[in-house]
């Protein structure tokens, strides 16, 4: 069954951790009839008071709806939870974070049991769920038919981005963005360490960091352009030779401030290797190749 032409389709949600509970509240607030199940039953009680139907077992919960959303700790818990359920004819949407390989294997596993499978990667934290203005969204990949049939329901908790039929692609995109975020967190951590013992209030540095990092995000487009054209020096305004020279200022200042350079060092070392190979006129695209090989 699709959600086209149905006002508020019924759905099932397995998993009522921090994220599952936020998802449940968003669907309940939007008026969707919702059946929930959680391994620890007490976590379902507040949602029952808010209108959710609580199933006694995962198999009962799966039987209650055509659309079954899963948001559990990890892939192993998904397998354990769905193992005893009849998935024939079900549309399984798995929002549990995992690797691309896990998503591909879980898709095959679900399809062998008669289900259609859509994988999801949530780019939001629980408070962002149900708040469109927060900018949170979910990557989806796998069955395009499931995505098309249920897009309106799936769009209730957060924005939707379908990234392809390969069930591993949602996880791949999820991990790519989270990896970029990790690099940003490392940079911000180092920046606060640099000023830690000085007369600079963290609260004063924070808006400056946010403004600067926001201004730099366009760099992703330039890097993509170089990777797609194969000409890594085209239109470069800040080349590798200049950046490596600048790195000595970053590293020297860290030493002078008594701050470990352990977060910066791996990246600066990679840049130095690329420069030593004679690519000083390029931007950073060559580092992507170095990492990939
Ligand atoms: N919370 C976040 O900020 C992030 C945002 C991005 C996406 N992640 C992923 O979402 C999945 C669920 O995360 P969560 O925040 O809900 O996680 P927890 O609060 O720790 O709840 C875990 C639920 O999983 C159940 N569970 C664990 N092991 C099993 C098992 N073997 N069998 C059945 N259920 C299991 C657990 O049940 P219980 O402990 O209450 O009985 C919770 O319902 C996750 O992939 C994040 O990476 C969240």
UniProtKB/TrEMBL annotation:
Gene3D superfamilies: N-(1-d-carboxylethyl)-l-norvaline Dehydrogenase, domain 2, NAD(P)-binding Rossmann-like Domain
Top enzyme class: oxidoreductase
Ranges for domain NADPH-dependent reductive aminase-like C-terminal: 166-292
Superkingdom of source: Bacteria
Residues annotated as domain 6-phosphogluconate dehydrogenase NADP-binding: 12-122
Pfam family, one: NAD_binding_2
Coiled-coil annotated residue ranges, if any: none
InterPro entries on file: 6PGD_dom2 (IPR013328), 6PGDH_NADP-bd (IPR006115), HIBADH-related (IPR015815), HIBADH-related_NP60_sf (IPR051265), NAD(P)-bd_dom_sf (IPR036291), RedAm-like_C (IPR048666)
EC numbers on record: 1.1.-.-
Keyword Oxidoreductase: yes
MF GO annotations: oxidoreductase activity
Keywords assigned: Oxidoreductase
PANTHER family to which the protein is assigned, alphabetical: CYTOKINE-LIKE NUCLEAR FACTOR N-PAC, OXIDOREDUCTASE GLYR1-RELATED
Family (UniProt): Belongs to the HIBADH-related family.
Protein name stated in the entry: NAD(P)-dependent oxidoreductase
Species of the source: Microtetraspora malaysiensis
